[in-house]
């Protein structure tokens, strides 16, 4: 048998062997919690019992149970990763570090997106080599998704996926110094659903002391379901599975059936007399809270946390262009969408039309969609944080237009990620069906954005003026 080689790190749970390459060291599939099996899928994450000997950290971990996602001709595999890679022990982190020494470097913890039903730390777009190159320890994590992660069930704690993120942050606090990271300089950052989870952390009492800074990329501070909305999803899930809506009943069901049941939850009408559907039917899962995070920041660590937050200028294009729904859109489509998100749809459409006098119906439809999903909730979170944090809020707007899909994708949801991770020149992101399209990435944009994220993680200052309600400074990136 060949002798095992590679760096070994001692953690509180046991030793882990990684690999060393040109970017530093990589340790994969380190469990931050015990495997969620049986009824444990609906319980809070519990610490891993640890292991003897040296654990192999050279291979990726399984991923949370999840369905395949299809975005037509657009290749979203770098974003979603390999999908469901079966295995029980998927509550894990990957750690990319310049060196596992006593360097006490800034730490960034990334929470992936995917509509609360898909995604993993294994996605190519989450490669942390550039962060390690620039002196940051990057942690990427998996968390429970779909029914195990977010279905509200009698007898189970709510928001188990969020509890997983909290457990991972506690692992970082207790273990990251062994990997050359500073547990007192932790930035948690997420994109899409991961950004909404990050926003919820800002309003979560149990998150106090676990991180110093936060970054929300294309998420929302107002994207959570009300308890009434959550009950509708639970009722539909129980009906699809033919069981009572209780933890005991769901605990006996295998993960395959949970994944197979997801199509039955698509398109549920979650509008109530007091709330619109914050995800407009794009996902049947979100966090479940009585108050939106943007309205509950005083309950959590937000006042003591630096926040970098922003959206892309054409977020809604991701949900229209790959499906060939942008150009055929009509004024009726725009008004129908506006009616899903507001009591006065005509006023919503008029406001968007006034801001975009030459916009086509498709562009207006995309604007309404992007504002409802991400823009309004981001603005409310930025204002709320600015009011309590004393100049610690920084806002950006990402405007670079991808030329994918015959030049039509634009500054859509997810297009900023290759620039944040400094991967924009990778060939697998280009071509007509690649996320960034056939044209080369604009010179300097990845260096600028990645550098801003690194600087923010280290100092709290990304390189532009702070945002205040009376002086709403917004940095345009890639415009």
Automatic annotation (TrEMBL):
The keyword Hydrolase applies. Its EC number is 3.1.1.-. Residues 7-462 form the Carboxylesterase type B domain. InterPro entries: AB_hydrolase_fold (IPR029058), CarbesteraseB (IPR002018), Carboxylesterase_B_AS (IPR019826), Lipase_GDXG_HIS_AS (IPR002168), Type-B_Carboxylest/Lipase (IPR050309). The keyword Hydrolase applies. PROSITE patterns: CARBOXYLESTERASE_B_1 (PS00122), LIPASE_GDXG_HIS (PS01173). It holds the Pfam family COesterase. GO terms for molecular function: hydrolase activity. Keywords: Hydrolase. Belongs to the 'GDXG' lipolytic enzyme family. Belongs to the type-B carboxylesterase/lipase family. This is Carboxylic ester hydrolase. It comes from Pseudonocardia kunmingensis.
């Amino acid at each position: 048998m060949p002798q095992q080689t590679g760096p070994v790190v001692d953690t509180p749970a046991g030793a882990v062997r990684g690999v060393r390459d040109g970017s530093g060291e990589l340790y994969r599939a380190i469990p931050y919690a015990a495997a969620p099996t049986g009824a444990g899928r609906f319980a809070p994450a519990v610490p891993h019992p640890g292991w003897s000997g040296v654990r192999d950290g050279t291979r990726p971990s399984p991923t949370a149970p999840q369905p395949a996602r299809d975005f037509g001709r657009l290749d979203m595999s770098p974003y979603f990763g390999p999908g469901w890679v079966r295995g029980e022990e998927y509550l894990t982190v990957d750690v990319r570090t310049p060196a596992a020494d006593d360097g006490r470097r800034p730490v960034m913890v990334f929470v992936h997106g995917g509509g609360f039903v898909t995604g993993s730390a294994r996605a190519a777009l989450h490669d942390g080599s550039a962060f390690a190159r620039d002196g940051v320890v990057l942690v990427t994590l998996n968390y429970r998704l779909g029914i195990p992660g977010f279905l509200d069930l009698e007898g189970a704690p709510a928001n188990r996926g969020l509890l997983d993120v909290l457990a991972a942050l506690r692992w970082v606090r207790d273990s990251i110094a062994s990997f050359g990271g500073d547990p007192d300089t932790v930035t948690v950052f997420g994109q899409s659903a991961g950004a909404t989870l990050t926003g919820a952390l800002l309003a979560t009492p149990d998150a106090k002391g676990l991180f110093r800074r936060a970054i929300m990329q294309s998420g929302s501070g107002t994207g959570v379901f009300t308890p009434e909305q959550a009950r509708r999803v639970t009722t539909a899930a129980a009906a699809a599975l033919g069981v009572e809506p209780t933890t005991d009943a769901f605990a006996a069901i295998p993960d395959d059936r949970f994944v197979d049941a997801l199509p039955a939850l698509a398109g549920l009408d979650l509008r109530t007399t007091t709330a619109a559907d914050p995800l407009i039917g794009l996902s049947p899962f979100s966090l479940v809270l009585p108050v939106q995070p943007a309205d509950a920041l005083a309950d959590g660590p937000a006042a003591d946390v630096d926040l970098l937050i922003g959206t892309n200028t054409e977020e809604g294009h991701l949900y229209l262009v790959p499906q060939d729904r942008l150009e055929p859109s009509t004024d009726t489509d725009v008004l129908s969408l506006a009616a899903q998100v507001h009591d006065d749809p005509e006023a919503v459409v008029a406001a968007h039309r006034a801001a975009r006098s030459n916009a086509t119906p498709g562009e207006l439809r995309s604007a309404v969609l992007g504002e409802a999903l991400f823009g309004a909730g981001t603005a409310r979170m930025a204002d709320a944080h600015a009011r309590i944090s004393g100049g610690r809020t920084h806002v950006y707007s990402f405007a670079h237009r991808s030329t994918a899909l015959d030049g039509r994708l634009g500054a859509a949801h997810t297009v900023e990620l290759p620039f944040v991770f400094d991967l924009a020149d990778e060939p697998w992101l280009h071509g007509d069906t690649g996320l960034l399209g056939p044209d080369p990435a604009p010179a300097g944009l990845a260096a600028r954005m990645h550098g801003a994220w690194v600087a923010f993680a280290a100092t709290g200052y990304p390189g532009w003026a702070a945002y205040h309600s009376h002086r709403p400074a917004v940095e345009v990136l890639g415009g």
